[in-house]
Specification:
Layout lengths: L4 E6 L5 E7 L12 E7 L2 E8 L6 E8 L11 E4 L6 E8 L5 E5 L6 E6 L2 E2 L4 E5 L5 E5 L8 E7 L1
Antiparallel strand pairs: 1-2, 2-3, 3-4, 5-13, 6-12, 7-10, 7-11, 7-13, 8-9, 8-12
């Protein structure tokens, strides 16, 4: 499997805030087939999540800055209108400090799939989200207007 790098978003010094790496096993890169999401802190990579793909690789990646898109307890906020493929595993990093709800479904018909604790997941969540699904997010206890959300989904 070849290396895959995606950077979300560039920071003010031109570096990456988030990097996704699919490993080749070389020095400094995860083992073959392992997908790692790294944040950048002080110019150094910090692993946010790392797991082997269940069925072949990364199928979903979402980065959200709560300063630009606040999440409230009042209504679901759409993260994705339609997933491109099936998602079987999610890793979630959430620095808002609030508990959240991840839901799937059309607007007004969302079905709660997962309660996300403050900080997100340590090892990830096994879920079965069909292809072409709308994914949304809502605050459970407190509104979130600062921090970041990073979701990695694997097939």
């Amino acid at each position: 499997m070849a290396n895959f790098y995606a950077f979300y978003p560039p920071n003010s010094s031109g570096g990456a805030a988030i990097q996704v790496v699919t490993g080749s096993g070389t020095a400094g890169v995860p083992a073959p087939g392992v997908v790692t999401v790294q944040g950048i802190a002080g110019g150094q990579p910090v692993v946010v999540s790392s797991a082997p793909p269940v069925g072949g690789g990364t199928s979903y990646l979402k980065f959200l800055d709560y300063a630009g898109t606040p999440i409230t307890t009042a209504a679901y906020v759409q993260l994705t209108a339609a997933t491109l493929s099936i998602i079987n595993w999610l890793s979630i990093f959430d620095s808002s400090g609030s508990a959240m709800i991840l839901a799937v479904g059309a607007p007004g018909s969302e079905v709660d799939q997962l309660y996300v604790p403050p900080g997100g997941s340590v090892g990830g969540y096994a879920l079965a989200i069909p292809a072409a699904s709308r994914i949304s997010y809502k605050a459970l206890d407190n509104n979130a207007s600062s921090g970041n959300l990073i979701i990695t989904g694997l097939v």
